[in-house]
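Cross-posting from the modeling subforum.

Setting up a comparison between two proteins and wanted a second pair of eyes on the formatting. Protein 1 (sequence, then structure tokens):
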Amino acid sequence: MPSRLPEILPDSGAGASAQGEAHTPEAGRTSADIRALVMTHREQARECYDKEVSDHPGIEGDLVIQWTIDPRGNVTETSVDTAKSQITDPTVAACVANVIQKIQFAASSRGYVTKAAYPFNFHPRHATRPAP
């Protein structure tokens, strides 16, 4: 999977308070912070892909998951960015979204909601051949 940073979606109220004021992300809510947490769960996301690729060879590429983090750090909504995703298999998408939903992100001391997206890039693992 790539080491690209997650995208904090600027046009979707990212980091906006209930009053609608914009701000720079708080500690624990920056792109780097979100990426670090997602990366700790990348093997779980990879398992979602590996389970399906054996039954549906040929699925590969990006799967971009978008989500909303509430002020307490809980993921409240997830979706697939179909315009940026090559993987459209609903089983893989639902499984990876479920992995994201279980992540506990940092709480916002100012009551902010954060919207983020992350591009998972999946390709089949190539079996290694034993040395002759």
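Protein 2 (same layout):
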Amino acid sequence: MTKSRIQENYETKIFPELKKMFPGKNVMILPRLMKIVLCMGIAKIAKEKTAVKEHTEELTQLSGQHPITINAKKSISNFNLREGTPVALKVTLRKKRMYDFFDRFCNIISPRILDFRGFNNKLDGRGNYTVGIKDQQVFPELNLDKVKRTQGLYVTFCCSSNDDNMSFQMLKMMGLPFLIENDRRK
């Protein structure tokens, strides 16, 4: 099996650079990209069976694998939600598909986002980073003639390290376009 361009770059350049940046750290503590999770909320359109099927096909095209459906665990009357109703679609990418998606996301998808200047640099406190995308139409894999409604999704980059600083440095070195501090709009 051939390695992805990003995986090869990580192993040959980024990992040795991380060793230099964080000397004295155990090699096993240094961050690695473990998985990428794509999650699309569909609670508002769950009553339309064709809409759920369409978004399942879209997420399959984006990721290259079939998503799982997440159902509501409890009924909540204030949200008009019944137990067992589909509320989200989720795909977990690992290994080669993960690196290929990361490459496409950094180099093709991110520049296509409207008014894109970079992603904020706030990680979740556990070394993971989540990006919210408002419109799935920025993905070139989708046939825009078949897209009937815009739907957002979350992309979560899960790292092996619990240290935000180390994970941030790794993601930045891998090519994730972060917002430069001086360029922020206020």
